[in-house]
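Late entry, written up from scratch paper. The run itself happened at the end of the previous shift, but nothing got recorded in the book at the time, so transcribing now.
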Amino acid sequence: MERRKKPKEQSMLETFQQQQYETWRDEKLANYRSKPESLFIEINNPLQLSSAEKKAIADNCRSNNLSFIKVKPNDDTRGSIHSINAQLGLVDFDQHLCVEDDGLVVIEDTNTPKKVGYVPYSNKALNWHTDGYYNPMNALVGAFSLYCIESASKGGNNHWIDPEMLYIHFRERNPDIICALSQPAALTIPERREDDKIVREASIGPVFFIDKASQKPKMRFTQRKRNIHWLDSGEISDALCALNDFLDSDTEIHHMYKLAAGEGLVCNNVLHNRSAFIDSNQQKRKLLRGRYKNSVSCN
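Output as recorded:
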């Protein structure tokens, strides 16, 4: 990746000062892997991951914030995925509207009353976003998992970008974009009401921020057009245009993969989208998703 040696220092970057940033950046770029196929880990026994399997997944999440897994078919798919996630330190699951007792939820095109009207549970495309962007800043999603029970007959591809690589891209080329999108009230998701009652408070925060636990850049973002408020400033408007233009392009840090049955991923809430899909009578897209407040344990 092309670099500019000394990006202009700005006050918004003081939480990740230049010397600290450059040390982290060099290590990140040295370890980042550009080929998704190199991130696959075969799981022999999901109820008892080997030390080598856990290390390989953690290493992938350290270098790319994402690891693919392959799990042999068994009679308890939900139990297997729950067990894998727990062994990776993912137990504190996000209490969203559709979550079940094990922290997982089925992602499919459905008319189930609780899920109808929400795009993830339809066959529509999902724009670029991080999971849980509407949560309060003290309860953001740190990691999520996906496991494919059945892929769509057509479409349903996932694209993703490692937010750390996106941060490097803009900090090297135009730190003003990072500054603008790091403002504490850059992005607001208004409160959600049902029957004139508040069921979710407004979420106010930045797009880019430095995670206190890991001291690494994280991201909170959505391309949604409705029920969203961006801070009214020319700096943020310009930065948002630049970000969306980049997301809609195709670069070496843009990746695409369509999970097949028996394949899954676990990641530290990478930026991602999903293409629209078509089911057939013989093949209906069905995935299991888990969302967690912490990141994948890399210890």
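The first helix runs from residue 18 to 31.
(Scratch paper discarded after transcription.)
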